[in-house]
Specification:
Layout: H1 3-14, H2 16-22, H3 28-35, H4 39-55, H5 57-67, H6 69-88, H7 93-121, H8 124-138, H9 140-155, H10 159-179, H11 197-205, H12 208-238, H13 243-267, H14 273-296, H15 301-313, H16 315-327, H17 334-358, H18 364-383, H19 385-399
GO molecular function: xenobiotic transmembrane transporter activity
Protein name: Bcr/CflA family efflux transporter
Keywords: Cell inner membrane, Cell membrane, Membrane, Transmembrane, Transmembrane helix, Transport
């Protein structure tokens, strides 16, 4: 199977996550009005999904190492589809949050399988290029998701958004069964018994270089998730934009991600991925410094929007480079390492997002300051990443 074909199918799979996160963002005001709750409370449904998406990967990753990627991925798609249909019929916020938690379990089993499949096939700079290609393909989903949600709202109501998600998950299962798994290189099942899962996780936790990249992922993803959680408030309530304008601005973030992803791919042939990572983390931080400055000075809307697009767009280069480095040192425990990465990313970022919602996202400055603080943490970790990689490779050569 060519890299493009593999990336296309895995990109379609990864797209399930952005669709579940972003498609219903334009419906936040309608959901709040329908349930008679504050707008900020609807953000709890997003935080609950993201937090579960992280925690459940701790189970799904090792299970995929032991029982295979296909079984765990298909179980995840089934759970996701059933939960989506139940959400479509929810009558209260409690029901909506509860089924979003269940949906997060299904989404986690899907999400953790993709990087593990990539690590099964390739490593090093090649893995970074493949992750980049997957990201480029899957950018279609978050770019189109708010527009899709707005279309559903125009045709009916927010319930139809989740009916669509259920249908997409079922269609994806059929496509993967026909086009992906019969063409992958056979992978021997892990012989590690379930009772040693804690030991496997300890191997990852004790690997300082890997944990550095996991920390970078957590901080950068937290920056983005804070924006996603409050994006409807920022654009629709604070600045009073329409659903269509909100969708266009949200798509602009994804457009810049795609551009930086395209720029990153040829650079990987000449520059180590860890160096590119450090540069792009710093660029994101500078964009957020500009954003905070504009907000403090009560600057114009166009300046706020440009700095947000610049900061969030940097994820297009950060994610593929960081994931490749984080998984590099665990070729035989790809599922476990991917689970630790995903669990840390979604759980901690989800907690930060939930805290920001609980404290009340009714002002712009605290939101952008929180994004800046998370980005600063990523800068600190990324600064020493090249040296950490060099030390780890030297140690591996000495042991060899």
């Amino acid at each position: 199977m060519s890299h493009f074909q593999l990336a296309l199918l895995l990109g379609m799979t990864v797209a399930l996550g952005p669709l579940a996160l972003d498609a219903y963002l334009p419906a936040f005001p309608d959901i709040a009005e329908g349930f008679g709750i504050p707008h900020a409370d609807v953000g709890l449904t997003l935080s609950a999904y993201v937090a579960t998406l992280g925690l459940a990967q701790l189970v799904g990753g090792p299970l995929s190492d032991r029982y295979g990627r296909k079984l765990i991925l298909f179980v995840g798609l089934t759970i996701f589809a059933i939960a989506a249909m139940m959400i479509a019929g929810a009558d209260t916020l409690a029901e909506l949050v509860g089924w979003r938690i269940v949906q997060g379990i299904g989404g986690a089993f899907c999400a953790v399988s993709v990087p593990a499949i990539v690590r099964d096939q390739v490593g090093g700079q090649e893995a970074a290029r493949l992750f980049g290609l997957i990201g480029l393909i899957m950018f279609i989903a978050p770019a189109a998701a708010p527009s899709l949600g707005a279309l559903m709202l125009a045709l009916g109501d927010w319930h139809w958004i989740f009916v669509f998600l259920a249908g997409y998950a079922l269609l994806l299962a059929v496509v993967l069964q026909i086009a992906l798994f019969p063409r992958l290189k056979p992978r021997p099942q892990a012989s590690t018994p379930v009772k040693t899962l804690v030991t496997n996780y300890m191997l990852v936790l004790r690997h300082g270089t890997t944990m550095r990249f996991i920390g970078i992922q957590v901080m950068c993803f937290s920056t983005m998730l804070l924006f996603i959680t409050h994006s409807s408030f920022i654009y629709q309530e604070w600045f009073g934009l329409s659903n269509a304008s909100f969708s266009m601005l949200f798509a602009a973030n994804i457009g810049l991600m795609a551009v930086l992803n395209l720029v990153n791919r040829p650079l990987l042939r000449r520059v180590p991925s860890v160096i590119l990572l450090r540069v792009q983390v710093m660029l994101q931080f500078l964009m957020l410094v500009g954003l905070v400055t504009v907000v403090i000075l009560d600057g114009p809307f166009w300046a706020v929007a440009l700095f947000i697009i610049g900061a969030i767009g940097c994820q297009g280069g950060i994610v593929p480079n960081n994931m490749a480095n984080a998984l590099e040192f665990f070729p035989h425990l790809g599922g476990t390492a991917a689970a630790m990465l995903g669990a840390s990313q979604f759980t901690l970022a989800g907690g930060i997002s939930a805290l920001s919602s609980a404290l009340g996202g009714d002002a712009l400055l605290p939101i952008v300051l929180s994004m800046l603080v998370c980005s600063a943490g990523a800068v600190v970790l990324a600064a020493g990443a090249p040296a950490a990689i060099a030390r780890e490779k030297a140690r591996a050569e000495t042991l060899a």
